[in-house]
Structures are given as C-alpha cells and as structure tokens.
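Page 47, continued from p. 46.
Same chain as before, 168 aa.
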Amino acid sequence: MMTTNSPQVSRQVGAMTLTLKSDVEIEFTRKFNAPRRLVFEAHSRPEHIRRWWGPRGTTMPVCEMDFRPGGKWRYVVRMADGREQGFGGEYREIVPPERIVWTFGFDGMPGEPGEEVLTMVEHDGVTTLTAYSKFNSIEQRDGAIASGMETGAAETWDRLEELLPAIA
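Result:
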C-alpha cells in the first residue's frame, strides 16, 4: 500500500499518471486522442458508460444516472468471477464539456463519499482528462488504493480511449 506524508508522489500506470497529492488527495491524468466534447459525452450518457467503465472483463448490470447537479448516480460492476462492486454518489456541478464535480464512493469504503473533480482540456484534438479526488481521511485514500483502483482506473481509461472513435 502506498502512503505518504509528503505531497506529489507520482507513478505511471499504463497511459495514466497517478499522483498522490497529499495523504487525502489523488490525481489521475491521461490524454485521449479525441475532442473533449466526446470525452465529456462518454461520461454523461449511460449507454456509453456501460461500454467503458470498469476494468477489462467486467460488465455493468447497474448504471443509474440523474445527470444534473443534485442528481444521484450508482454503478455496479460485475467481475468475470461473478463478484460485484458498487459505486455511487451525487453530481454537484456540471459544466459541459469541461467539468464534472461529483461525490464518489464505493461499497465498503469507510465514511462518506469524497469529492472528485473531472476536468477536460483540449489542445489540437487531444483531450487531457484529470480526475482529482479528495478523500475524507487517509484511511479512505489508502482503502481506495488497496482496492486495486490504480489498475482498474488505468484499464477503464484504456477502454474509454478504445470506445471514443465509435461515438464520434
């Protein structure tokens, strides 16, 4: 398990960069070969999310989204072995096509969901997606890391990269 008392510990996980900003903050960054309107659309429509969200080999039997500030969301990902993992929260701010702020929790995470800010910045048709997550405690952050979220997030974003040409 990675823990740190000093900020800015970074590591490359596939095409994604993971940075531990502090004991309660994680930032994920990745470039996508697509305009940000498509990256945003892929995050805002359940028919797209079902096709890319979760590690390889998973399916999404539950994808509930009330995509508006104050709206709730819940996803359940089913692993190849049949185990399921639930995620959920509430949308706080939506600024198409550049920003989504939501709370983000997963079943079994101690305490209340933390806040995550997704930003999308486009330059020459390439979109940099940054997900900044702030947890309520170091235990939450370390629990997320221990859950395998590094690999899961990297695979999820690989699947998103693969899907983007199909929704163009």
